[in-house]
Amino acid sequence: MPTCPLCACTRSRHFHRDARRDYYRCENCRLAFVPPEQRLSPEQEKAVYDQHENLPDDPGYRRFLSRLFDPLERRLAPGARGLDFGAGPGPTLSLMFEEAGHPMAIYDPFYAPDPAVLERRYDFITATEVVEHLFAPGRELERLAALLPEGGWLGLMTKRVTSEEAFARWHYILDPTHVCFFSEASFEWLAKRLGMSVEFPAADVALFQKRSVR
After folding, report:
1. Which CATH number characterizes residue 204's domain?
2. Tally of structural domains, the chain
3. What is the pTM of this model?
4. How far is residue 76 CA from its own chain's centroid?
5. Is 180:140 a contact under the CB 8 Å cutoff?
6. Residue 205 is part of which domain span?
């Protein structure tokens, strides 16, 4: 069985198969995932992302992002500094936070690949429709959490696995760049691993807050 890319457990089971790919589910953290040999190459990935037409002045796209923006912004101190991780070809969430008075940095491995950005500290970090694309979500999310102080926030947006039956007919698995699929149990495991609390203000939003180490 393939190793889980979130928790590195080797106890997974075959969960689903469609015309293109296999999907496994980890028995430990409950992440569903595509095995490494069935992922796209970086060139194939970018060709898909280049087709995205998410524009900063699109009201519909801003409404979509507001599902994370609204609950997270209410929890931030004035002037809190943030990072939008995986900003994509048309950064928009970062603009929304800047308009609300929060200085922002952006990072994207294809469109804004500045490694220096990942060496700074932030009061909050966002990743909207990103974690389902990560080949090594455990390593990447640990790296992001390390950039936050006590009380800092990590806001994730991704659709969640609910049941095996729903997964089989789920449109979300049809995107060939989607390779990791989280459930509430996966996020609860992650919160414990990172020393954070987690809450779910919307069906596709998870907000993590870093606990005090004292």
Report:
1. 3.40.50.150
2. 1
3. 0.96
4. 19
5. no
6. 12-210
